[in-house]
Amino acid sequence: MESIDTELAAQIRSDIILGMYGRRERLSEAQLSETHSVSRTPVRLALRMLEHEGLIRRSKGRGYYVNAPTVKDILQAVAVRGHLESLAARLMSQSPGRHNVMPDLEVAIDEIDRLINVGKMDDASLRMMQAQNAAFHKTILEGCGNDYVGFTCSRISHLPMLEVGAMMFDRQVLSTADGIARSLFRLKLGNSQHKVIFEAIQSGDPVRAEGVMREHSNTMVEYIKVFEKRDEELTIKDLIGYSGISVIPAKNGSAPYDEVT
User: Fold this and answer.
1) CA neighbor of 162 nearest in space, from 252, 88, 53
2) Secondary element (H or E) of residue 197
3) Cα distance from N-terminal residue to C-terminal residue, the chain
4) Taking a C-beta distance cutoff of 8 angstroms, is the pair 230, 242 a contact?
5) Torsion (CA) 247, 250, 254, 257 in degrees, nearest 10
6) Each residue's pLDDT tens digit in the chain (261 positions)?
7) What is the architecture of the domain spanning 4-66?
8) Residue 128 host element (H or E)
9) Beta strands 56-58 and 26-27: pairing type?
10) Relative orientation angle of helices 177-203 and 123-143, to the nearest 10 degrees
11) Which residue, 237, 77, 228, 86, is CA-closest to 158?
12) How far apart are CA 248 and CA 16, in angstroms?
């Protein structure tokens, strides 16, 4: 069970990302204590967490002000994550112990293939695909031999679409049979990239592993830009509404679904 301050931080984080507060709106311990019916101690601890994440800043006087992320911030963070995952793939392909975890990557790839072949895009199927996608990416981050790569990814994982292995789908597209077919085809392409990355790591080809992972990670950036073309004034709240993503990470540690790479 999560502590009160951790749960409180998650709720305030969600409110900030969803635009419940203005970008530079002032936050006070007293105000938040009354709003959430808790004492000031968990509020103080929650605010420290959010300050550490960069979602709030300490004001020159007392208290904090909101530093809500923009779509531009998300795009920049996704690009950073992509470079980190590309580095992880390169390092893992050079690791002498990589063969110990190759079966885990293979299981994730095979399970995604199985789910795609079933042809369903309901919530249960999407969550299972998300879990396997997260398993694939986490295995590479954890098996690359450089703990700081995964650590750095974890420092931005609180942002929407920044959980490792996060996936994104367009709710409007999934509302039609043709849209479902196109989404399944996109998933096939993504898993084909998984297979190439797997083969590059297995054969010890760092250049190919890094290059294909970079291309694979860039899919998220391209998808966000599709939403930007739909709405020039796109906000984080709009992006969440279009895709149906959750802004609160799943408690089991996997990325909240309805995102994607």
Assistant:
1) 53
2) helix 177-203
3) 30
4) yes
5) -50
6) 678 899 999 999 999 988 889 888 999 899 999 999 999 999 999 999 999 999 999 988 778 999 999 889 999 999 999 999 999 999 999 999 999 999 999 999 999 999 999 999 888 888 899 899 999 999 999 999 999 999 999 999 888 888 888 888 777 788 889 989 988 999 999 999 999 999 999 999 999 999 999 999 988 888 788 777 777 778 888 777 665 555 555 444 444 444 333
7) Orthogonal Bundle (1.10)
8) helix 123-143
9) unpaired
10) 20
11) 77
12) 12
User: How many Å apart are CA 128 and CA 70, to the nearest integer?
Assistant: 29
Find, among 196, 152, 202, 174, the residue nearest to 260 by Cα. Answer: 174
Residue 54 has phi, psi (to 5 degrees) of 85, 5
Q: Are 173 and 183 in contact (CB under 8 A)?
A: yes
In the structure encoding, which two tokens stand for residue 6, read together?
Answer: 């951790």
Chain centroid to CA 247: 10
The residues facing 66 across adjacent strands are: 56
Enter the tokens of residue 179.
């849209």
Q: CATH number of the domain at 71-243, out of 1.20.120.530, 3.30.565.10, 3.40.50.2300, 3.40.50.410? A: 1.20.120.530
